[in-house]
Amino acid sequence: MGEPYRKDLSHLTWDEVFARQALRADLVGDWTEALQIQRGACVLDIGAGPGYVSLELAELVGPDGLVCAVDRSAEALAYLATLQRERAVTQIRRVVADATTWDPEGMRADAALVTMVLHHADEPLKLLANLARLLPKGAPLVLGEFHPDAPCEVGPPQTVRIAPEELQAWSEAAGFAVTGYKRQTPEHYMLALRNGSPAMAI
C-alpha cells in the first residue's frame, strides 16, 4: 500500500514532484496553445512547484520575455533556481507567495496558467478572484485539473478532484468567461478562459 495522499505533498521529494510534472509533458502543448503565448510575453505560472512547466514556458517567451513562477514553497523554487543555473535560463522570476493575496506590484501579465494546483488550494475561488484582478481584461487563463470521472491511476484520489462544472462555476464567479474545454486524457482536463465575463443585465 502506498503513502496516503497529503494535500501539501510533504510525503514527496522535489525530485519526485518534478518527475510527476514531467510525466504531464504531453499536456503542455494544449495549455500553451490556448494561452497564445508570444515571444516577449509575461506569463504567470501559479503553483509552479519545482518548475517543469515554468521551464517549458521560458522557451516560448524567449530571452526577452518573463515567466513569473509563483509558489508558496521556498524549497520548491530553490529547486527551480538550481535548474535555471544548470540550464542558463534567466527569464524566470521566482516568487515565494500565496497566490490568493499576491500582488506583483505593477507588473503587467499577458496570460496565466494554473495546472494541477487548485485541488491543493485552501481557497481556490479566492485564488481565481485574485488572478482576475491581476490579469488585464481579455487575457487568457488556462486551468488544468484531474477529472473525478477517471481511473485515478495517477494523481490525487477521487475525493479531492474537482469536477469541470464546479471549476467552471468558480471561474465565472471570479469574473472569467470559459472559452473552451478539453478532456486531455482519461485522467486530465483543461479549461480555457478569458478575463472579463460577458456583460450582465442589471
Give a verbal description of the structure.
By secondary structure, the protein is an alpha/beta fold. The protein has a single domain (14-97, 105-195), classed as Rossmann fold, CATH 3.40.50. It has 6 helices and 7 strands, in the order ααβαβαββαβαββ. It has helices at 14-23, 25-35, 52-61, 74-87, 124-134, 164-174, and strands at 42-46, 66-71, 92-96, 111-115, 140-146, 176-183, 188-195. The chain has a 7-stranded mixed beta sheet, with helices on both faces. Helix 5 packs across helix 6. The longest helix has 14 residues, at 74-87. The chain is globular. The N and C termini lie far apart (55 Å). The model has no long low-confidence stretch (mean pLDDT 93).
Share of residues in helices: 25-40%
CATH class placement: Alpha Beta
**Strand order, largest beta sheet:** 3-2-1-4-5-7-6
Please provide the ordered H/E string of secondary-structure elements: HHEHEHEEHEHEE
Number of domains: 1
Unreliable parts: none
Which fold name is given in CATH as the topology? Rossmann fold
Helix count from the secondary structure assignment: 6
Structure keywords:
202 residues; 22% strand; single chain; Rossmann fold; alpha/beta
Task: Offer a concise description of the structure.
The protein contains six helices and seven strands. With 202 residues, it is an alpha/beta fold. Helix 5 (124-134) crosses helix 6.
